[in-house]
Specification:
193 residues; single chain; mainly alpha
Length: 193
């Protein structure tokens, strides 16, 4: 569990500088330069991610049940993952309606992903992992929207063709991940339980 916690601290800590220390972040970027900041940020994030993967794998082996979610929560989780995948794709396609409306669709995708997995998993490792990501995503979305309001940020209007592409690609990604990739990468087949 120690590696999982250390990984979460590194990964989410690196991703929280805009939430808790925006003035410090801007001063540091000004002092060391944008490229060096991105390099440091990337190294910390990568190290944290590796520790999360290793630590989560080890913590899963312990079991440590906290609660036993009912079977229907797996279906809710699968349904929540569909808009999560659409929002994830929306973060990378400019001028779509999701980005125009929410501004930060990737953070919303993380919120839905974490909530879905908290609903359907009751072991300590999952509660710690997904609970940490959910708490971070809520705080990050609030901070990002506050920054947008303070800066007067207006996102470009969405275009229907781009929005339809986002929905189609997000849905396809959801289907491929649910049917094949989740089992291959995580060892759990969402629809087989």
């Amino acid at each position: 569990m120690t590696l999982l916690l250390a990984g979460l601290l590194l990964f989410l800590g690196a991703h929280s500088s805009r939430i808790v220390a925006e003035p410090w972040r801007l001063r540091t970027i000004g002092r060391i330069g944008g490229l060096q900041w991105k390099g440091l940020y990337s190294l910390l994030s990568l190290a944290g991610f590796v520790l999360i993967v290793i630590g989560y794998g080890e913590a899963r082996q312990l079991g440590l049940p906290l609660y036993d979610p009912p079977a229907f929560t797996r279906h809710i989780a699968s349904l929540l993952m569909l808009p999560a995948m659409v929002l994830l794709v929306a973060a990378y396609v400019p001028r779509n309606h999701f980005k125009a409306r929410f501004g930060h669709p990737m953070v919303l995708a993380v919120k839905l992903w974490a909530l879905a997995h908290l609903l359907s998993n009751g072991r300590a490792a999952e509660v710690i992992l997904f609970g940490a990501f959910l708490a971070w995503a809520v705080a990050d979305f609030i901070a990002a929207r506050r920054r947008d309001r303070a800066a007067g940020t207006v996102y470009p209007a969405g275009e229907w063709l781009r929005t339809v592409i986002v929905v189609i690609v997000g849905t396809a990604l959801w289907a491929v991940f649910a049917v094949k990739l989740h089992q291959w990468l995580i060892g759990v087949a969402p629809f087989a339980r």
